[in-house]
Amino acid sequence: MVACTIENAKPSENQYLIIASDCLTQKDSSVFNDFKKTKGIRIYILHLSRDSILRKLAKESYATRIDAVLLKSFYDAELMDRKQLFQKIPKNEGQIFTQFFSKDKTFFTFGYDPYVVVNLHDSTAKIVNYNGLSQKTTWCSDLDSEEEWYPFYASLTSQTRGSNNFNWSEWMHAFLDNQNEMPSKYDTLFNCPNYFTLLSHLKNDNSAFKQLNKKEVVFPNQQLLGAYANRPAYGVVRQASNFHNAVLFLEYLQTDLGNKKINRALNTFPLESSLKSKYSYQQQSFEINYTPTPVLIEQFDKIPAILKAAKKIKRALPTDTLIEEL
Question: In this structure, is residue 117 part of a structural domain?
Fold first, then answer.
């Protein structure tokens, strides 16, 4: 990653930036102490759910004190963008990752949160690609919201668009049919051969992950296209009273240091070209699907119809309709 050059700002006790976030809390503001020291801008973080942020912005309108929003999923960022809550970011020399901006340059996806499979016990039939989740074995997941699932579905639809050999509804039917209910935190995961989740969920405070003795995390598709990933996102709200400070922080998120710090705090991967993972048993390189953000967003509208069709299918899934590239 090439470090960005950010305009130096004269430190001032009166400079601040208020960020609403569903994945960071006020104590995480210490992660950005170097930004505060360099720019003289204090960071305040309001920890709110996506829906709470939406309600707060709608209620307060131009009187809001929120300057920017930092979200764990770019699906949520796109939802807010549709409600015209973000303003376009002016082009500058700091924008070196243009493929990670939304189509209208209203928000920036600053990292990768890969969809991973955790093998819960020794098995010779390991899941090595996402297609295995629809064919080989049952699995469970702690992903329970649209903002966590839709980026995965968008990656799949993006990969298979234009293919005449792939029956999306049948694949989704088999995929969902193999899913077992997620055990409660008091139950064992032994009856769930594979645990499907986001890398950001696998922290020390994850009760399910604590039960794993071997903690073997698989990044699917390592021999083909690379793992699919959700992407945390940052946008500047339309009513931002500290617009300049919010843009400076955006540029900071694109620097090598800033990008690594925010992704380390979220347990996600930075925007580096060569990523390494100590977890993958297949190979040391961690490759991911570098589909541009605007292309993935275009798939969101197609997903509800695909899910609806998949739930209506009653017959068995023909194996010859599947493609191994998934």
Answer: yes
